[in-house]
Amino acid sequence: MPGIRFTGAMEIAENIAAIQKRVDEACERAGRSPDSVRLMAVSKTQPAGAIREAVDAGLTLFGENKIQEAKLKMPECPPAAKFHFIGHVQTNKARDAAKLFAMVHGVDSLRLAEELNKKADQHARDLPILLEVNVAGEASKNGYSPETLLTELEQLLELPRLELHGLMCIPPFGADPERSRPYFQRLVELQDRCEQLIGVPLPELSMGMSGDFEIAIEEGSTIVRVGTAIFGQRRYANTQSRKET
What we know:
The chain has 245 residues and is an alpha/beta fold. The protein has one domain (9-231): Alanine racemase (TIM Barrel), CATH 3.20.20. It has nine helices and eight strands. It has an eight-stranded parallel β-sheet with strand order 7-6-5-4-3-2-1-8. Helix 1 (9-30) packs across helix 2 and helix 4 (94-100) packs across helix 5. The radius of gyration is 17 Å and the shape is globular. The model is unreliable at 1-6 and 237-244 (pLDDT under 50).
């Protein structure tokens, strides 16, 4: 978003209040309760101090996409901070993902799900997950194709340590937030098909980021992932992808 920069405690609190107001207004337009949408602060590349400031401002849900980075800074964060993993999980990182995070969003294959299930069992815990769907069929993105997801859904449900809570997606990048709407609608349609197939609700839809979260809420998102609009532009050592901003 134009004009966003690295922010201090007061600015973080002001940004959170402004984003929450926009969340509430989007819910009102959609005829939804504001309580039906959770605001996640995407805290990748942000220090533990920035997370503490966000917690002081009332946020408790944070998203990380690098296992090692999260592993180092999570012990320095307040107990109230709850972390979801929102990046791609490599199978060799499944042990840490299953141990550290309250939910894993980017489950994109049966092989990965089986590995997470095995590691969660070793940690004697049940692991909530979301299935990532590549709604636009982009070669550059991870995620299930809708067809493969429907084929593997029942096998995923048989993994005893995984709790399937819903779906997530990242639409193609575009300057106009309205261009994301058809992709959010596709995810909602897929959610309906999955629920009909398995006969149980999948209540969570993780969709919408700093540039398009209001559109996502209007289409049914229950978790919006907002980073730069809260913390300011990230400081990368090298050029990285836009994923989860």
